[in-house]
Structure formats: C-alpha cells, structure tokens
Design brief:
This protein is an alpha/beta fold. Helix content is 47%, strand content 16%.
C-alpha cells in the first residue's frame, strides 16, 4: 500500500514525505519531480511555457505520471498541489476522478490541510511556482479546491501550529494500521 500526500502549495508535502520515508523505510516519489524528469529537467514553469500556459495539457501529463507511479507498491507519493483537479471544456477546474481513483487503488490519501491565507502568502512570489490562473488569486483557487481535497482524502491532517517532524509522526501513527 502506498502513502499518498496531497495538499495545497506550501503545505509541506515534500518535507513531510522525506521524514516519513525515514520512518517507514519507503522511497518517495514526487509527481512534480517525475514530470520534470520526463521533460528534460525543465521546471514546471518551463513545461507550462512549452504548453503555452495550457493547464489542461499539464493535467494530462500529470495523469500519465500518476499512472506510472501507482504501478509501484509501498512508496510514498508526494503529489503536486493540483493533482485533485482536471479542467472542464470551459477551462474551469473540476474534481479529477481519474487521478484520485488511480491514487486510491493501492494507497491511502492523506490531505495536509492548512490555513489558506497563510499558505497563499507563503508561496506568493515564488518563481518556482507558476501562476495558477492570471484572472484569479492563488487564495481564490485554493478556496475553490477545498471540496476536491475533502472528496479525495481518506485521512485529513491539520498542519497548523505543528512542526514538520510532529506531522510526520502523526501521519505515521494514523497510517500504521494500514501498513
């Protein structure tokens, strides 16, 4: 069974997944890093540029990566913040049943839930994180995604006021019954 971490930008998924790796002796696979690997080590921003800012193409690429990752067992999957979304024909974000179903097939999905204004402020101006939408703020997008995270999550962990090490320990205790 895989351990799948989801959450908004800045929630600490990468840091916590590495800590969980030490505790569980499992490898960590980052969906964003694998996307970069398969695209000649380009950054996510550069990949989006390559797709002319087309998030739909990026979400399709993310789906292909998730298909590969879930073929493995007993790994920790560090998902990009938007793994729970796809785009409808009008370009609006919708729940990504196809990606979430894949992740859930052989894994427990853990949502690292944080304070949206704090996370938006924390990641604002980070050049390594591409703009999610030119017309909407990151905070607006994060609020819109809340029901998608809720639907995807098997386990919800509130990250506020906790250190990364403490969060890894909380997750380990909650997930150990499934390992």
């Amino acid at each position: 069974m895989n351990i799948v971490l989801i959450g908004m930008r800045g929630a600490g998924k990468s840091n916590i997944s590495r800590r969980l790796s030490v505790m569980t002796k499992r490898d960590v696979l980052s969906s964003d890093l694998l996307i970069q690997y398969e695209n000649d080590a380009k950054s996510i921003s550069e990949i989006l540029e390559m797709y002319q800012g087309n998030w739909r193409d990026f979400r399709d690429l993310e789906h292909k990566i998730i298909q590969k990752i879930v073929a493995l067992d007993d790994v920790i999957i560090d998902c990009g913040g938007g793994v729970i979304v796809d785009l409808d024909k009008a370009g609006n974000e919708v729940f990504s049943k196809r990606k979430v179903d894949l992740l859930r097939e052989n894994g427990k999905i853990i949502w690292l839930k944080g304070d949206i204004p704090r996370l938006a402020a924390k990641t604002k101006g980070d050049a390594s994180r591409p703009s999610l939408n030119e017309a909407k703020s990151a905070e607006e997008i994060m609020y819109r995604r809340l029901p998608f995270y809720t639907e995807a999550a098997d386990i919800v962990i509130d990250i506020e006021g906790k250190k990364r090490r403490e969060l890894a320990e909380i997750i380990y205790k909650q997930i150990s019954q499934y390992l």
